[in-house]
Design goal:
It is elongated and about 75 Å long. By secondary structure, the chain is of the alpha/beta class. Helix 18 packs across helix 19. Strands 1-6-5-2-3-4 form a 6-stranded mixed beta sheet, sandwiched between helices. It binds one RNA strand through strand 7, helix 15, helix 16 and helix 19.
Length: 418
RNA sequence: GGGAGAGUGUCCCGAGUGGCAAAGGGGGAGGACUGUAAAUCCUCUGGCUACGCCUUCGUAGGUUCGAGUCCUACCUCUCCCA
């Protein structure tokens, strides 16, 4: 592992964030001399960011923590185009309205990791729609387009792959890389931003920006990419059966978020502790020494720390407590996800199928509920459901005043009368 | 503009002779084993008021007792020629 002189690169390097760096020595020296400004671009294709975006966010976090200035660039303009990198097919093109709505949700997440001006920090949130939307096509071609070689663009992996697979690549998408390069140059001009970070798939786009900056303004700029994070078993991170693991609490509850990290594979725990928590490396080293079943302790730390970053310490501790009661003590946790039901409805009785499928959505349909019953996967108050005609009534309320429905061993929902 | 192909189980890939709720994977869910892990094994993976009914193979029509499969038009994509 290369050793750097700057805190910034050292920390990123030790914690496993670095895949490739352009001119590492020069960048390192710059970071020692004074404050550098760096940016990462984010899509706004959804109303929230998910775990996949967490890695770049952490890079900005460490950037600020080591005394530099982070810029979170919202792709309000480029989202209207769509990045072909790593995509087999064209993205859906969103309307401007959708994009603006998404921006609002995403902003909220950033403020948990970065200190912006209004919170006494120096972080900047920018939106490339501010300059991209104003571009004049002819001017842009003349000033920027002349610096791009189509021959070279065709050689880029993202483009080459599409061509080789005989998948269409529209001119619109082909321009994505040009726009991203232009973003970098624009941020360089506006804020003196000299470093762009991103996932390893962004290398080509970032380097294009560096070239463009040199040609247009003689600027010296840098690239730093993070490795693509997959789980030990090779799966992409952040997807579960229910969909992406979002960072917004109203899309994925802190409890579920905690559970996501709790279920990390053994082989990933240490790597994830370094990447997705801010625990000192010395402490992580202690946790790394754990073997066998004791690794579960490390997983709990990972879950709690990672949850605390996104949802706050209180929510993280509550999630940890709920999990402890539910899984280790086998007792009732009032803080499990809860569905409220009118008392009168409960008096009349609720069919199990209905309770699992519609009320709590633990399963996707009545048919699915039947299948799970057959497979022994549904439980009411920890007792297996064997009869699909079973009815839940007020009699099933436990001493704690709720009925606990479970799918498998891990998913639990409480029904409470109101 | 001309010619040749492609679009399949609303996650993805992918077989499919006129009888098809449609092979096989991947992914996912549950069970067994465990440590809320991995690996392995087993089961399941359209919906419903359920021995029946309804909805699915790009879209809309048609032929047929019967269409994913045949015909027509259209849409989208790919390739070749202009």
């Amino acid at each position: 592992m290369a050793t750097y002189k700057s805190d910034f690169l050292n920390i990123l390097s030790e914690r496993g964030f670095i895949h490739q760096v352009s001119e590492p020595d020069v960048l390192d020296a710059r970071a020692v001399e004074g404050q550098i400004t760096a940016y990462i671009g984010f899509d706004c294709t959804a109303a929230s960011l998910h775990i996949g975006s967490l890695l770049p966010i952490m890079m900005l976090y460490w950037l600020q923590q080591t005394g530099h200035r982070p810029i979170a660039l919202m792709g309000g303009g480029t989202t209207r185009v769509g990045d072909p990198s790593g995509k087999d097919e064209s993205r859906r093109i969103l309307t401007e309205n959708d994009i603006n709505n998404n921006l609002v949700g995403i902003r909220a997440i950033f403020s948990k990791f970065l200190k912006f001006e209004n919170a006494g920090g120096n972080a900047i949130m920018s939106n490339n729609a501010d300059w991209l939307n104003k571009l004049n096509y002819i001017d842009f071609l003349r000033d920027v387009g002349k610096h791009f070689s189509v021959n070279r663009m065709l050689a880029f992996d993202s483009v080459k792959m599409r061509l080789e697979r005989q998948q269409e690549l529209s001119f619109l998408e082909f321009n994505y890389m040009v726009l991203q390069a232009y973003d970098f140059v624009e941020l360089n001009k506006l804020y003196g931003c000299t470093l762009q970070m991103g996932g390893s798939d962004q290398w080509g786009n970032i380097v294009s920006g560096i070239d463009l900056g040199r040609r247009m303004n003689g600027a010296q700029m840098f690239a730093l990419t993070a490795p693509l994070i997959t789980t030990s078993s090779g799966a992409k991170m952040g997807k579960t059966a229910a969909g992406a693991v979002w960072l917004n609490a109203d899309m994925v509850s802190p409890y579920d978020y905690w559970q996501y990290w709790r279920n990390t594979e053994d082989g990933d725990v240490v790597r994830f502790l370094k990447l997705f928590t801010t625990l000192p490396l010395a402490e992580i080293a202690k946790l790394a020494a754990l073997q066998g079943a004791d690794i579960n302790e490390a997983k709990k730390v990972l879950a709690t720390e990672a949850t605390a970053l996104v949802h706050g310490r209180a929510a993280a501790d509550e999630a940890a407590g709920t999990a402890r009661k539910t899984f280790e003590e086998g007792t009732f946790a009032q803080s499990l996800p809860t569905v409220e039901v009118a008392r009168a409805t409960l008096e009349q009785g609720i069919g199990v199928l209905n309770a699992f499928a519609e009320l709590t959505a633990l399963v996707s349909s009545n048919g699915d509920a039947r299948r799970q019953i057959k497979a022994g996967g549904l439980k009411v108050n920890d007792a297996n459901v064997t009869d699909e005609k079973m009815t839940l009534t007020a009699k099933d309320l436990t001493a704690d005043g709720a009925i606990k429905l479970s799918l498998g061993k891990k998913k639990h929902v409480l029904i409470k009368p109101v």
